[in-house]
Design a protein that fits this description.
The protein is built from eight helices and eleven strands. It is of the alpha/beta class and 219 residues long. It has two domains: 119 residues, 3-Layer(aba) Sandwich (Rossmann fold); 96 residues, Orthogonal Bundle (Arc Repressor Mutant, subunit A). The strands form three sheets. It has a five-stranded parallel sheet, with helices on both faces. It has a four-stranded antiparallel sheet with strand order 6-7-8-9, covered by helices on one side. Strands 10-11 form a two-stranded antiparallel ribbon. α6 crosses α8. Keywords: DNA-binding, Phosphoprotein, Transcription, Transcription regulation, Two-component regulatory system.
Length: 219
């Protein structure tokens, strides 16, 4: 499990990271909202643990950004105990809400309660297209589609984040890595090849911005 822990208190992030690492998970730590969003846009996290009181932006704003663009469970951490604050957090999309102080084991238990549904989503359906994460294969109208590794990774990236527009730079970074020296037009060629295999309706070109899944395919 890939976990991002966002809190401006280093003691809290260190303790939580230690517990999750001992549990066999991989953790990243951010102490500001800006660095958190940077990580979120670069790494496909399975869970976000998010403090509401950050030095540069409100945790609610980060939660809202995540829920608009990604499918990541969010556990909010806060010292605010009023019911109004909890309601506000849930309205922003929080999946769970923990009031400080807390024991790290409580966060682990809550995380494990949240994850089964997301981890069971090994198959993504988009209209007549089915993508299987673990097997890295695709079916359309129950017919097997042969993708290259990069084609499948690109299509899966878009399918996992259907509301988000990915620029060519975003795609290069996520598929080939931060330090890749790849021509941006390679992305266009991959998109062209994918469209040939599954049809042109599934991937939408957002002119001047990049590519996204056409959500109308599920209508």
């Amino acid at each position: 499990m890939r976990v991002l822990i966002v809190d401006d208190e280093e003691k809290i992030t260190n303790v939580l990271a230690s517990y999750f690492e001992e549990n066999g998970d991989h953790t990243w730590v951010a102490h500001t909202g800006e660095s958190a969003i940077h990580f979120i846009d670069q790494i496909p996290f399975d869970l976000l643990i998010l403090d509401l009181m950050l030095p540069d932006m409100a945790g609610e704003d980060i939660c809202q950004y995540v829920k608009l663009n990604y499918d990541i469970p969010v556990i909010m951490l806060t010292a605010k105990i009023s019911i109004d604050e909890k309601v506000k957090g849930f309205k922003m999309g929080a999946d769970d809400y923990v009031v400080k102080p807390f024991h790290p084991k409580e966060i682990l238990i809550r995380a494990e309660r949240l994850l089964p549904d997301s981890q069971k989503k090994q198959m993504i359906r988009l209209g007549q297209l089915q993508l299987y994460r673990d097997e890295r294969k695709g079916l359309i109208n129950h017919r097997s589609i042969q993708f290259t590794p990069h084609e499948f990774s690109l299509l899966l990236l878009l399918a996992e984040n259907p509301k988000k527009v990915f620029s060519r730079d975003d795609i290069i970074t996520k598929i080939f890595g931060l330090d890749s020296d790849i021509n941006l037009r390679i992305v266009d060629q991959h998109i062209k090849n994918i469209r040939k295999k599954i049809g042109g309706d599934y991937i939408q070109t957002v002119f001047g911005l990049g590519y996204k899944i056409n959500e109308k395919v599920n209508e």
